[in-house]
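Step 1: inspect the first sequence and its tokens.
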Amino acid sequence: LVLVKAHLLRCCVGMSSRYDSALTVFSPDGHLFQVEYAQEAVKKGSTAVAVRGESSVVLAIEKRAVAKLQDDRTVRKICSLDDHICMAFAGLTADARVLVNMARVECQSYRLTVEDPVTVEYIAKYIATICQRYTQSAGARPFGISALIVGFDGGTKPRLYQTEPAGTYHEWKANATGRGAKTVKEYLEKNYSAEAVKTTDDTIKLAIKALLEVVQSGNKNIELAIIEKGKPLKFLDPDKIAEFVDSIETAKEEEAEKKRQKKSSTVAI
């Protein structure tokens, strides 16, 4: 019986490794392991958050420590695709650079052909289509990134889409990707509302609060950008981010103090 179990285990391991190395072959239980590994690469990336407000979209990312002699301006996780569209990503930066360049070319090609700026959904679908193509091509591997694509179409309403390594894309009100995505999403689900994103400052605060759920060092490890209707992508100064973080922490302390006072008064009664 022990020998039979050992033989079955070797067979299972052999089958797993066979499907593991083949991108275009499904495993018997319906998995494409290389695509799932690409999704795991995304989960190891820096956390990125996007929040859609009433008149703007805010992108916030977790900045990782850079080498002392390295110029941190060359380490960007937020980039512009066109005058009215930008994206943040989690995963492999080299893969992102390739997709960003392809998307920028497509934006300009669309503008020259149609004589109109590209829509946010079109470019999200374009990126997702490229990602999907690399999940069924022999001799290639999937792109190891998940992108949060934001911007404005013809109207004044901002748009937010997310793409995945498998080639899927969906529209969201707020979302996160990267290693802390689960915690950040839970916070956004509890706290996102129309009132919470009424103004640009409110939207910024919500994005920072969500990111602070997984970022321990406060404003030093946060990079934030805003895109508004008719305006180019704008990166917030570190000093301005520090002001928002300080006000959020002060509000938290005041709320905690009120709770302590309420608890002590209840005990006294």
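Step 2: inspect the second sequence and its tokens, then contrast the two.
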Amino acid sequence: MTGLLSITTLILASAASQTNAFAGNGLLPRTTTLISKSQLSLSSTKTTTLTDETTWRLRLLLNDVTTSQGKKLDGQLFVLEGHFIEEEGYEPPQGLFRPFAKERVEGGTGKDNAMVLEVIRSRWTLSEDPNDKKDGLWIWGLFKEPLYPFMLLQIETKELELPSGTQQANDGREDIKSDTIPPLKLYAQVTHIRNEEVGVELKTANLNVRVLEKIQLPGASVDLYEEERVGQVSFQPL
């Protein structure tokens, strides 16, 4: 029994001396640390950005657009996917929306019965309230970074051919009529939020088109544009 106690004492003493040696070198013995699933998900989650690091899905719900055949679209959903790209050297920050190819997006739109719009050109600019022009508060040193509560977004699309429909001709035969959505120039004033944990947040906004109105004055004419609502756009980071 005495021999067994002495062996146990030697083992404990050896372990203690190893611990002291690690401590003297500024090192600690390896320990096992358990990390919860929630901690893993938080560490691997990236914040959303207006760069090519974040893919965005834009869902455009058009309610009041007239086709080439005079038909009014009523709640037709369209989808765009791509990246917001910021161009360097501009203040306020601005850039373009770079869409993915139509074929790449179409694969994920089936369950929504959505169609894909093709973009000709686009432009976005971060802004203060465009209807309330004033000096930015960051000029006076009140904020570390400029505060831009809005994104002004402009998207121009190609003409889009709609699925063919059939109409009854005068002689009783079915006459297949093709219909299209004309090229659109869409505008939106989007609420833009910078969340420390999530990153960039873009809120659902109204979609507008600009209607030209010519006003005739003595010896001259003036072009005025009025914005007319045609739907909504929502944003989803993927």
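Step 3: confirm your contrast with the notes below.
DSSP finds three helices and 14 strands in the chain. Residues 1-13, 15-44 have pLDDT under 50 and may be disordered.
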